[in-house]
Automatic annotation (TrEMBL):
Catalysed reaction equations from the record: IMP + L-aspartate + GTP = N(6)-(1,2-dicarboxyethyl)-AMP + GDP + phosphate + 2 H(+)
Amino acids binding substrate: 298-304
Descriptive protein name: Adenylosuccinate synthetase
PANTHER family, per the entry: ADENYLOSUCCINATE SYNTHETASE (PTHR11846:SF0)
Record EC number: 6.3.4.4
Length: 428
């Protein structure tokens, strides 16, 4: 089973870092193929907690090669801050590889991201303001800056100058901000060249050669299915392809090389930022899920919106990704609920929808149709087999599996790496 994709099956923050890290000790490469430092993974190793933003979580697994693919946008300042923080804690980061074709987030795109969101007012998308969207826009507009451009000062300066010809007009004339200086931006980017050079590689070649040699690779998505630029709740989405199809373009491998697609999904639902969220709770139960689950953004610290499990979204995610397995996380957070509602369909103006509505307007007005399941009161954090779970917790998992249409292969019952019940081996 050489190539496994791990991605979020909801709106993000499902626990992909933990799932990938569990596989990481048994795989040779962990590859991030999309996104940037606009999302975070919290990985708990023993008594140590690590918050990763840009780096693949496999960097914490000895012997595993972490790779940042060409589909990622890289904030170089954040990259080296993360590397230095890990090094100071005794983590070996020398194996990291970065695609020469990955795009760099220049400082002017961070500025544009923030001022654009403020300008949109109540119509804002809810971005993290880290320059991700503008950098992906530059990529599509063919005015972006790649990692490889850092090694040729003349080309780099020409590209910065070309990009700022338009962007400075927007900054000055529309947003009343100071123009970005070509020399300053070029100098800042050049300052990272010598430090990043040893990490740069033709990662597509490296990964395909690894697959040819029978190595085991895990492809780790940033963001999640419902934030995918094509298949998510557009326009309240990220700027990259967070679904399984993004692996091929974001890492440079063919679709025939992918063997298994694992969706990570919470036992309830959360979302950060703006946009529709049918099962969202605005009451004490929502606050309980937030506090008990520690639902605050790893990267931004923003409180996450919380709601009940949405089987409609789970089925949709299974379809657009071709999921073979689900990893269910944070089942322990639901302990102590007398009844646990699960959304099985939507009501849109009196019409029942068992699948995702075709248009976003209908989804925006969707009301959840719930089925209530019996809860449990026992502490499940010590459980390591499915049979050790309380009967009602077992029934809840089996009901989600049937409603979602994908087998649940692993169940998280606590934040620690060991707090997991394995029903099916993800690499078998």
């Amino acid at each position: 089973m050489p190539a496994v994709v791990v991605l979020g099956a909801q709106w993000g923050d499902e626990g992909k870092g933990k799932a990938t890290d569990q596989l990481g000790s048994r795989v040779d490469y962990v590859v991030k193929f999309n996104g940037g430092n606009n999302a975070g993974h919290t990985v708990v190793v023993g008594d140590e907690k690590y918050a990763l933003h840009l780096l693949p979580s496999g960097i914490l697994s000895p012997g595993c090669v972490p790779v940042v693919g060409n589909g990622v946008v890289v904030d170089l300042e954040v990259l080296f801050e993360e590397l230095e923080a890990l090094t100071s804690r005794g983590v070996d980061v020398s194996r990291l590889l970065i695609s020469s074709s990955a795009h760099v987030i220049p400082s002017y795109n961070r500025t544009l991201d923030k001022v654009t969101e403020r300008f949109l007012g109540k119509r804002q998308i809810g971005t993290t303001g880290r320059g991700i969207g503008p950098t992906y826009a530059d990529k599509m507009n063919r005015v972006g800056i790649r990692i490889s451009d850092l090694f040729d000062e003349k080309i780099l300066r020409e590209k910065v100058e070309g990009a700022l010809t338009q962007k400075n007009q927007i900054l000055v004339k529309i947003y009343n901000r100071r123009a970005a200086d070509v020399d300053a931006v070029t100098a800042e980017l050049l300052s990272y060249a010598d430090r990043v050079r040893p990490m740069v590689a033709d990662t597509s070649l490296v990964l395909n050669q690894a697959l040819d040699a029978g190595k085991t690779l895990v492809f780790e998505a940033g963001q999640a299915t419902m934030l995918d630029v094509d298949h998510g709740t557009y326009p309240f989405v990220t700027s990259s392809s967070a679904t399984a199809g993004g692996v091929c373009t974001g890492a440079g491998i063919g679709p025939s090389r992918v063997d298994r697609v694992v969706g990570v999904i919470k036992a309830y639902t959360t979302r950060v930022g703006e946009g529709p969220f049918p099962t969202e709770l605005h009451d004490d139960l929502g606050e309980h899920l937030r506090k008990t689950g520690g639902e605050y953004g790893v990267t931004t610290g923003r409180p996450r919106r919380t709601g009940w499990y949405d089987a409609v979204i789970a089925r949709y995610s299974g379809r657009v990704n071709g999921l073979t397995d689900l990893v269910l996380t944070k089942l322990d957070v639901l302990t102590g609920q007398e009844k646990v509602p699960v959304c099985v369909a939507y009501d849109v103006d009196g019409v029942r929808h068992d699948e995702m509505p075709v248009d976003q307007s209908a989804f925006h007005h969707a009301k959840p149709v719930y089925e209530e399941l019996d809860g449990w009161w026992e502490d499940i954090s010590h459980c390591r087999t499915f049979e050790e779970l309380p009967v009602n917790a077992q029934r809840y998992v089996l009901a989600l599996e049937e409603m979602s249409g994908t087998r649940i292969s692993s169940i998280g019952v606590g934040p620690d790496r060991e707090a997991t019940i394995v029903r099916h081996d993800l690499l078998d």
